Amino acid sequence: MLIKNKIVIGALCAGLFLAACAEKEMKKTEPVAVAPAAVVDEAPSFTNPIIPNGADPWLQFYKGNYYLTTTTWTSQLVMRKSPTLAGLANATPINIWSESEADRCCNFWAFEFHRLMSPQGYRWYVMYTSGTKDNFDGQHLSVIESDGDDPMGPYTYKGSPMPKSWNIDGTYLTLNNQLYLLWSEWQKDEQLLWIAKMSNPWTIVGERTIISRPTYEWEKSGMKVNEGPEVLQKDGKTFIVFSASFCNTPDYKLGVLELTGTDPINPSSWNKIDKPFFEKANGVFGPGHNGFFKSPDEKEDWLVYHGNSSAEQGCGQTRALRAQKFEWITNGNKLLPNFGKPVASGEKVKSPSGENGPLVAQVQGTTVQLVNKANQLCLSSVLENGQTRVVQAACDAANAQWVLDYTSDGQYRLVNGQGLFLSQQNAGEYSVAPWQNLAQQQWKISTLESPPEAPTAWVSINNQSNAKNFAAQNCSTANAQDCTAWRIQPVGELAISSIQSGKVVTIASDKTTSKKSSPKIELNEWSKQAVQRWQFVHTDNGFYSITNDAKQCVSVANKSIVPGMVLVAGECGDKSSQWSVEFLANGVQKISNRQSGLVMDVASCGVANHTPLAQAPFLNTICQQFRLLPVH
Q1: What DSSP string runs through 185-242?
Q2: CA nearest 455: which of 579, 584, 554, 573?
Q3: Against a cut of 0.85, is the pTM above it?
Q4: Predicted pLDDT at 40
Q5: β-sheet bridge partners, residue 384
Q6: Quick check: helix, strand or coil at residue 493?
């Protein structure tokens, strides 16, 4: 049987989140004069294709960032994020999940992530197609669940709706507070669209019903195919946009079903429009496996899809990620989407509205404090007389916390509890303001040089607009450089996640550790255990003990400086149990041992559970790069 690579795209539960938090008065504050951020006049733009190998894209804008997944054909789920659509082209690919179980390890296709309500609050559910390493005959859907409200995870495996049958391209439909699963499955020589009710995001209940089969000639090019169902809803109307014909032909295209009845399980409730809605044009072939997303200001509807640049290309890695705005039209009494024609490669496209803000957003990411070397005060924002001001203050309050969020090209942004972004107006003048995609709102973090015999881990925070270092206010010290030296203090309980696998740093159980030695440190799937929860406790000069509630610290076995020595859960206090955290130019973290200068490294670049960690020279591979993720 001929099978193809797929990904599903449907727009649920994403969009702009606006919030304001009450600020508490703080002690020992030193007010700083602020000015409003300048307005950006130039409209951002991008060109298609955004990513050359971007099959089966799923894209959403959520709380200040676009998030994107594309098919990998490996045993890893990859995600990218960026505050701009164009920025996704160079965004760091992060593996948020990997699998080594034989029955669900390989050939990952068609990732989707949906924000749905759970008993614990909103969680992200990633549904994907996977199977066995030998062939595509075992492909079926699986679902993982985020620990919190961050699409980047960490995630735990929840289950498969239909583990014993071949099924692909899963997506969710929510209608009248009932969750449904939509997917594609073969019956004889036809690939069909199916639906079933769900009791939770990974379990189906009741009957499985066919709601669409290829009936028109435009659905039968190469093979008889209906697949990639995606939900589109507007003004009380529900549509399913699906991909028709075989993906290996240039005639792969989009069709539309409209829900005209009241029961989506009943096939007669669905009406198929008799003409395709999106097909080859302008040098783009096989446009399909689409999804939908809203612009940052939620005023525009956008289509994301993959397409080829020649008629000879098919279902492989030539399928490129593309996006364009679409409109709605009224045809008689019917409201229908109008996708237009694929935009030609290289044609300049105006970016989604709202990318230049003004945007207030509670960005997801690592919460930190910025502590100055000269005065040991924290960078804070405080509400005074109706105005939010940037100040130096004590570090014991919530308004001394910031989310550190990577943008692009080695730059970060700092977001306070009100969803406002740190900006530099002039030297010594700082403000917080809504995001406006300004250079003055973006910062480069660099580790300051120190002598090899007495290493330190202080950093400078350099503004993109004027190359000025962020400086403590009213700073008086014998060493002026201390006024621009900072340490980045991670806040709260964190998971330390490998960007190679998405698995997290864990203290091994007794089953894998000799009773005569300290427990080894390894990587495992996130399971919410205490042995996976870490705090970063400052020792001195920007170094941290990575410890847990049991007062165990991540250490180097035998206090060794030898490359390849494994990491263990040992005693705290020694320099072999102290680490620096460097925020790299690609938005992830390098964790270096104070005593040896070597870095935390994933043995053999493994993705399986119980993969050990060791120290090694820094080679700048993804097996030596991590993310610090807040956990609940």
Answers
A1: EEETTEEEEEEEEEEETTEEEEEEEEEE---SGGG-SSSEEEEEEEEEEETTEEEEEE
A2: 579
A3: yes
A4: 47
A5: 387
A6: coil
The Cα–Cα gap between 398 and 119 comes to 27
In the chain the first and final C-alpha atoms are separated, in Å, by 45
Phi, psi of 473 (to 5 degrees): -85, 145
**Stretch (H or E) spanning 463:** strand 459-463
Q: Which position among 23, 56, 355, 405 bears the catalytic label?
A: 56
Asked if the model's pLDDT at residue 32 lies above 60, the reply is no
Phi, psi of 89 (to 5 degrees): -60, -35
Point out the catalytic residue in the list 99, 150, 219, 227.
227
Known catalytic membership, residue 217: no
Q: How far apart are CA 98 and CA 93, in angstroms?
A: 13
Long-range contacts of the stretch 476-484 (C-beta < 8 A, 24+): 477/374, 477/375, 479/374, 481/448, 482/372, 482/373, 482/374, 483/372, 483/373, 483/374, 484/460
CB 602 within 8 A of CB 497: no
Evaluate if residue 239 carries a pLDDT over 80.
Answer: yes
Q: Which of 478, 517, 490, 515 is nearest to 373 (CA)?
A: 478
Under DSSP, is residue 480 helix (H, G, I), strand (E, B) or coil? helix
Plot region of 354 (φ>0 → left; ψ -120 to 50 → alpha; else → beta): left
- Coil, helix or strand for 142? strand
Q: Give the dihedral of Cα atoms 95, 52, 8, 335; nearest 10 deg.
A: 140
Place of tokens 């279902």: 315
Look at residues 85, 96, 94, 98 and name the one whose alpha carbon lies nearest to residue 46: 85
Q: Are 518 and 524 in contact (CB under 8 A)?
A: no
Return d(Cα 66, Cα 123) in angstroms, integer. Answer: 17
Q: How many CB atoms are located within 10 Å of the residue 442 CB?
A: 25
49: cis peptide before it, omega within 30°? Answer: yes
415-469: per-residue pLDDT in tens? Answer: 999 999 999 877 668 899 999 999 999 999 999 999 988 999 999 999 999 888 9
Backbone angles phi, psi at 496, to 5 degrees: -105, 105
∠ at Cα 74 (70, 79), nearest 5°?
Answer: 35
% of the chain beyond a pLDDT of 70: 92
Region of residue 201 (left: phi > 0; alpha: psi -120 to 50; beta: else): alpha
Is 56 marked active-site?
yes
- Please give the single-letter amino acid code of residue 142: S
Cα dihedral 498, 499, 501, 505, rounded to 10, equals 10
- Which among 324, 353, 359, 410 is positioned nearest to 44, based on CA atoms? 353
Secondary structure class of 123 (helix, strand, coil): strand
Half-sphere exposure of 348 (CA within 13 A, CB side): 4
Kindly give, in sequence order, each residue whose CB lies less than 8 Å from that of residue 236, ignoring residues fewer than 6 positions away: none
Question: Which residue in 126, 13, 116 sits closest to 78, CA to CA?
Answer: 126
Query: From CA 492, how far away is CA 502, in angstroms rounded?
Result: 20
Angstrom distance (rounded) from CA 627 to CA 147: 15
The long-range contacts involving 143-146, CB below 8 angstroms and separated by at least 24 positions, are: 143/201, 143/202, 144/77, 144/97, 145/118, 145/201
User: How deeply is 77 buried, as exposed, middle or buried, from its count of CB atoms within 10 A (0-12, 13-18, 19+)?
Assistant: buried
